Every structure is written in structure tokens, then in C-alpha cells.
Amino acid sequence: MKKIGLTTTVPIEVLIAAGYTPVDLNNIFITCDDYLKYIDIAERDGFPKSLCAWIKGIYGACLENDIEEIVGVIEGDCSNTKALIEVLQLKGIKVYPFSFPHSHDKRDVENEIKKFMNMFNVTFEEVEVIRERLSEIRKLAKEIDELTYIENKATGFENHLYQVSLSDFNGDIDSFEAELIKVINNIKKRQPVNKKLRLGYIGVPPMTSDIYQFVEKFDAHFVYNEVQREFTFPRVDEGINIFHQYYDYTYPYNIEFRIKELKKQIEERNLDAIIHYTQAFCYRAVEDIVLKQSLDIPILNIEGDKLNTLDARTKLRLEAFLDMLLDVKESTKC
């Protein structure tokens, strides 16, 4: 099957039905041992330093991994993607645009997905067959999530890793399914680890994945990863078809829709606080203002840039925040 790169989560059911292997360029970028080389490639080609590292990483990953076709999300994701795909087109990359309509109207979402299916010459029936197959694997990801916030056996990093991987199913549906089954069986054998602080992680998946291990030093545990969970389509059982499934996806639409689900998860998971991760030079950082006014829970905003590990200043801010939460929790008991 021919590879096709993704700038973010899109209806991959369409791509698989068309005979493609979807590859999330974000995952290629961030999991590379020498991930900075991708950023360097972009900056050498003229991308400014004052631009999100993810965009530059996607660009470099696309060129370096012989990706000849990509799907670029031009509405509902990064505001810089449109410029990115224009440059990639200059490099000879074939680009298929896709939009999550700002209106978040069911008819508009359906029309966009139908246009996408027409681009790849696949039928609704063919796409639904693939959707049913992928739904089986998405249910496994939901099980890992429950092992995290209900049984307290899966770590926050495991929750992050296996959910974020559903953006492209690691490029091999059957192998990824087998891996998830094995991981779930191993996690189930563990004893629960009950930390005093139950944290939620919201915002784009982090450049600095060591945040999960770092917070565990302070008797804290991430039991919710917002966007990573959305990549798994956790309400897939409620989706009557592909149109409804992508209509019910919170990440690309208006913030009010997103906040509604956040409030539900804060209560259901009994969260003590939230870490809101934003990327340097990203417009989504402004959303922190709305989130802090809309959510009745302590929120710490941290920002990542090029580093894939937490810097000293961010560690200090996290430590102070977690210490404060622990003190409040202890005093409440008294």
C-alpha cells in the first residue's frame, strides 16, 4: 500500500479504503532520535525561527521520509498548515486538502467528508467497512484509558502513547491491534498505583513527553489526556456513521464544544487540576484565557518549543504548582 502523510487526524477510513497507508508526520517527527534535524531542514529552506516547531518538523519529516502525497488540514487545525502545504507543493508533493468546517454544522461536516471520498474515488459503503474494523481497535484504546483513570494501573505516559498512536494506527492496523492486546494484558496484571493528585493534560500532545514521569515524583498521576483521547474517537459507539463520528470529534471545532466535554471529564475522572500545554508561536495559547474562565479547576499553562524534554524553568513551575495542590488537599482533610 502506498504511503500518504497526514498533518493531523483526518478521516483515515477514506484513505485506507482507497488503498493507502496513512502516516502521521507528527509521529515520525517526534519519535525520531534526531528529531531536530527535521527542524533544521525547514529552517535551512527558509522557515522562520518564530514558527511552531511542529510545522517545521512535519515539513522535514515529509521530505526526509520520501512522502510523495499528503493530506493537509486547512481548517480546524494549525493556522500555519495552509502555508506549509503551499511550500510542500513547490517541492513536488501532491497535496489533498481537508477541512473541519468552523460552523460545526452536521451538513457541512458531511459535505466535507463526501468531497474527501470523491477525491479518492471511494464509496460510503467501502468507508463504513473500514470504520467498523477500526472501531474494534478504538475500543482497545478505550480499555487502556479505563485502566488509567478507573483502575489506576496504566501510567499517564502509556495512556498518552497508545491513544496518540491511533491517528495512524502506527501504519499497520493488524500489528497495532496485536500490540494493544498484549499491552492491555500486561497492564491488567499490575497492582493499582494510587497517587494523591489526579491530573488532566489538555492541549496538543506535548513535545516534552517526560512530563508524565516528572509529575509522578510529586505523588501525581495524569489520568486524562484530552486531545490524545479524542484521536481514539472515544464515543465511536454512539456514531451512526462516519459523518457523525467526525462531527462528534471535539479538537477541530469551536472551544465551547470542547469545554463541554472537558467539564464532563473533569467530573467523571475526579480531577484535582489541569496542565494546559501550548506550543510556542501557536494561536491556541490564547485559548488559555477562555479555558481558565470557563473551567472551575486549578490550571497551569506551560509552553513547549524545540526541546523534547522539560526545561529547568518549567520543572520549577510544575513543582511549585503540584506542591501547592498537595498542601491544599492536606489542609482540606484537616
TrEMBL record:
Q: InterPro entries in the record, alphabetically?
A: FldB/FldC_alpha/beta
Top-level division of the source organism's lineage = Bacteria
Task: Tell whether Iron-sulfur is among the UniProt keywords.
Answer: yes
Necessary cofactors: [4Fe-4S] cluster
Tell me any Pfam family this protein matches.
Answer: HGD-D
Family to which the UniProt record says this protein belongs? Belongs to the FldB/FldC dehydratase alpha/beta subunit family.
Q: What is this protein called?
A: 2-hydroxyacyl-CoA dehydratase
- State the organism of origin: Clostridium brassicae
